[in-house]
TrEMBL record:
Pfam families given in the database record: Polyketide_cyc (PF03364)
UniProt biased composition (Low complexity): 302-317
Organism per entry: Planobispora siamensis
Entry keyword set: Membrane, Transmembrane, Transmembrane helix
Transmembrane stretches, start-end: 103-122
Keyword Nucleus part of the UniProt annotation: no
Protein name: Coenzyme Q-binding protein COQ10 START domain-containing protein
CDD domains: SRPBCC_8
Gene3D superfamilies: 3.30.530.20
Keyword flag Transmembrane: yes
Stretches for region Disordered: 293-317
SUPFAM superfamilies attached to this UniProt entry: Bet v1-like
Amino acid sequence: MSEQYDRKTDNLARMLGVASLGLGAMEIIRPGAVSRLGGVDDSGLARAVMPAFGARELLHAALLLGGRRPASRVWTRVAGDALDLGALGRAIAARDGRRRRRALIAMAAVLGITALDVYTMVRAGRRRSKPGSAQGEHAAVLQAARRDDTLHAAITIDRPREEVYRFWHEFENLPRFMIHLESVETVGDGLSHWRAAGPAGTSVAWDAEVVEDRPGELIAWCAVGGPVNAGGRVRFADAPGGRGTEVRVELSYHPPGGKVGLAVAKLAGEHPEQQVRDDLRRLKQIMEVGQVVRSEGSPEGTRALRQAAQRPAQPTR
């Protein structure tokens, strides 16, 4: 899939929406011409029913052209295709000669369109699974990663558990303490669009889906397609002795380049586990102090690549 949430499938769905718009307009404006062209009938009954089919096509068009994730609504066209095929089947059985030939041609055209609708619907189903299967996908990612590419990190934050949970749950806050993240945009239905800094000044983007959410206790997510294959959980619990909140992160990932890439990243000081620990320290500073504490010795805050260069310094002014 592309960096967008499988934009190819959405563009295909919008194209089908445009087709529905044109066909629906024709069925309403020229019902007799459409019925004759399809070999259905040119009787008064056919001319009366055809606008209803046109209204249905306009509804398909509104659903596919009026939302951000149109591919998820292609199933409505598949249901309409079944009605069209049924009407054409009756026409073929009842007609002969030129009308039957026209009906057969129309049947072939509708079968081709139906195949395209079903193809788009299947792509959309693979792209965005239902909540139950999304949890299964997330569990599979974590299970596969537990062999050697799962990391754990934890920190205690002197703030109430509900407050820390709410801050994390507003995913737009994540780039404030996750230094490699450039942006996170919530798009609805448990989906969010993430963009992170990549190598050599590039950016990497992907979509993630929340697969489990227990207010004040747990947030679990899983990447949906794209170049990132990862999932994670963050747990929130009351720290002993009334010391605030324990935040525990479990992150599974398949690093680019496999173990070789992971070894190179570790030598460069960019090991993912170090990154997450640094991120949690910045989260603690934001929650307790209101900002990331920086100094002349670490002008970008605690970041893995700068560990060797850090030194005692006076706070910046």
